Amino acid sequence: MFEGEFCAGWYWVIYSDANGKFHRALVGDKGEIILSAGAIGSPQLLLLSGVGSESYLSSLNIPVIHSQPNVGEFMADNPRNNINLVIQFPFSPSPAQVVRIMTSTEVSIATIAEKTTGPLSHGSLRLSSPKEAKATPLVRFNYFSDPADLSRCVKGVRKLGDMMNTNSMDRFKYTGFNGERGFMFLGPALPSNWSDDSSVEDYCRSTVTTFWHYHGGCLVGKVVDGDFRVMGINSLRVVDGSTFIILPGTNPQATLMMLGRYMGLKMLRERRESQ
Questions:
Q1: Hey, where are the domains in the chain?
Q2: Nearest to 133 by CA among 24, 231, 44, 214
Q3: Which terminus of the chain has fewer Cβ atoms in its 10 Å neighbourhood, N or C?
Q4: What is the number of other CB atoms lying within 10 angstroms of the CB of residue 220?
């Protein structure tokens, strides 16, 4: 958690470390604060520090430093629906790797997933504690609240069903005591009634889970401007996934790393030009 104290063109930024010890950093009149705590942490810290909806902050007895009604709004995540198949023979998994960061893991379950990229549904972030930054905030993504997202999920789940009915997938089936062959699922199986939209919609809602692609809360054009400055506060920028209006179609890790590099170089150039 941090808070600012302004005096004669200078800022004292008060923050606490992982051990709960408080520190002060002096920021000059040309200095800046860069907040990069992620799609969950950045809006949470802004709210705790008094940057947010005036009515909401006042209801929590948090002093309003800067009125900004869109902090914590437009929270979104790429929803995922998947099936887990129990595999009855050894096989070589091919887990995804992102910019050589993730490590491979041996599995005995095959997971097949579909996701809705660029969801139109969004929710909000609220504080669970008005004083404690370590308290996990309350986040609602409201998956499939927009009918377009739900319609895309129905199409995606049906594609999974089409794939499961191919000859290539037959080798993953088990033979039951009655001689019939079928898949063994860990968790929910695909709905059997493909012709009924409501049945597949219920499946989408009941089996949705996250791809951990959280974004929103400090959107460009809503909370920060095109240079990622919090609008109305020239000395504060937010540079992370909380500013994204929409995510790339895959894991945003590499995009976020390049955003940090881009903004670092841009700010360095701006400082040199101002000298």
A1: 2-75+213-274, 80-117+146-210
A2: 44
A3: C
A4: 15
Q: Is 231 exposed, middle or buried (0-12, 13-18, 19+ CB in 10 A)?
A: middle
Q: Percentage of the chain with pLDDT > 90?
A: 55
User: What's this model's pTM, rounded to 2 decimal places?
Assistant: 0.82
Euclidean distance between CA atoms 163 and 107, whole angstroms: 21
Instruction: Tell me which residues are annotated as active site.
Output: 213
Asked if 37 contacts 45 with a C-beta cutoff of 8 angstroms, the reply is yes
pLDDT digits (tens, 9 = 90+) for 43-89: 999 999 999 999 999 999 999 999 999 999 999 999 999 999 988 87
* Residue (of 150, 155, 164, 77) closest to 112 by Cα position: 164
Q: Which CATH architecture has domain 80-117+146-210?
A: 2-Layer Sandwich (3.30)
Determine the topology of domain 2-75+213-274 in CATH: FAD/NAD(P)-binding domain (3.50.50)
What are the structure tokens assigned to 200, written together? 């597949």
